[in-house]
Amino acid sequence: MALVTITSDLGTRDYYLAALKGAIITHSEITNIIDITNEVKAFDIREAAFTIRHAYTYFPKGTIHIVHVNSTEGRGKLLVAVVDGHYFITFDNGLLSLAFEKTPHQTYQVNEELLEDNSLLFEEAIAKVIELLSKEYTPNDFAHLTTETINYRLLQPVNKPGNIRGTVIYIDHFGNAVTNITRSMFQEFIGDRSMQILTNAANTDVISRTYSDVEEGEMVCFFNASNLLEIAINKGKAENLLGLKTDVSSVLIITD
Q1: Whole-angstrom Cα distance, residue 140 to residue 149?
Q2: Which residues share a beta bridge with 110?
């Protein structure tokens, strides 16, 4: 039986998430539904893209991932993308291009007959797509390849030998700030040279291994499990204490 995940901005207070799950169970009889998170900030496709990109690889191939964020900007389209043996059901709002750096080659637009009489939540259409995929139909059976999708580009660091200027791209539940500076980028442009990591309100000259490498309340920087530079306060909120904001706050690494 297929495994289904949900990443959404639907929250848990209203009936929207229950309606989506109920439709899936009714149409496909799939009950193995895992919530990655339903607390994505409302309409925030960048946060949703970051979340699904770093979560889906932990699931087995053949998993069906619903990314239900900012459906109102989907232009009435429902998309199915195939990446690394995984299926992604989402809307034409640019999310796929952010999650995978560009819209995947195998991106399909669901045929209109599956979208008839559907609400803005698309729960019935999503459920029908899952039903077909679980019965080993392929996207070609109910959708058509498309290249006419909304595309966005992620902010990229500015690099030169001895200098990297990156941006905060995600802030987690603990207030830790994740940047777009990768481990490989650091090794290429900084290497083993003495350096300083500069943020809004603090700096450090050490790349640590984990949060507890510093005293409580101190700033710590390290490369996380996704090999992205993370800025944190040990048992504190870097977001507040350092004044960090996504897509706004810059992080500068310079050699001494």
Answers
A1: 17
A2: 143
- pLDDT tens-digit readout, 118-127: 666 789 999 9
Q: Given the DSSP bridges, would you call strands 64-68 and 78-83 parallel, antiparallel or unpaired?
A: unpaired
Distance separating alpha carbons of residues 30 and 51, to the nearest angstrom: 23
CA distance 247 to 180: 10
- Whole-prediction pTM: 0.91
> 198, 184 in Cβ contact below 8 A?
no
18 φ, ψ (degrees, to nearest 5)? -65, -40
Contact in structure between 64 and 52 (CB atoms under 8 Å): no
C-alpha torsion sign, points 199, 200, 203, 207: negative
Asked if 222 and 213 count as a contact pair (C-beta separation under 8 A), the reply is yes
pLDDT at 183 over 90: yes
Q: Tokens in use for 139?
A: 């996207």
What residue numbers bound the domain in which 73 lies? 4-145
Beta bridge partners of residue 165, listed in sequence order: 158, 252
Q: Give the CATH number of the domain where residue 39 resides.
A: 3.40.50.10790
Domain count across the chain: 2
